């Protein structure tokens, strides 16, 4: 920075936005896409304010351009930001606008449809409309599969969501099928040592326990907990992992 200190990640992103607006002002469609990428970086930092500011800039540009594809892109990406901030009404309004503009894209757009569908499934879930959220999730998963886009990161997100939502709805057999699919995707992508695989194992343990296989569930949950603890430290363990492990330890002891 100007005081000789190295720039923080946030300062770098702010500079990046300035450079974008200064040097690419004649290509607003490109700037919109970059602003959405930058908003995702803010989200990873847990900076909801920075994330929202980048998306508001993107929306303003998209309105100026008047391109339904760009408006759809911004609105469906902003739904999750509104949900994270607890603004359910605003999330629903953006979803309505996003879907309205999606319908105006000449010839349709598979990327925008899967983005909006994923956002819509999250929103329906947040609104407590679980059966509708599940139906939307399955519809979007099938679009990914029909278009041979199962290596897309959003497909993995939908598969995990379906595993959890179907479990909450008591549709355990279907949930187990999506959980198995989750493992397939992670193995295909070589993603076998990140939080995604530990989450999949955590869900698998839940399914096994529900099916009466407590000992097998305990072993899987123990492996997941040990892996997270060794990689990221015990303090990073999610309460759901620790409480499930404790519950299974007691359950297996009682049945011995």
What does this structure look like?
- The chain has 256 residues and is mainly α.
- Helices cover 79% and strands 0% of the residues.
- The longest helix is centred in the C-terminal third of the chain and has 19 residues, at 214-232.
**What is the strand content?**
under 5%
Determine the number of helices (DSSP H or I, runs of at least 4 residues): 12
**For the terminal residues, how far apart are their CA atoms?**
63 Å
Extended strand count: 0
Sketch the topology as an H/E string, one letter per element: HHHHHHHHHHHH
Rg from alpha-carbon coordinates: 21 Å
From the spread of the alpha carbons, the general shape counts as globular
Structural class: mainly alpha
* Uncertain regions spanning at least 5 consecutive residues: none
Q: Helix content range of the residues, please?
A: over 70%
Summed over residues and divided by their number, the pLDDT gives a mean of 89
Sheet of most strands: none
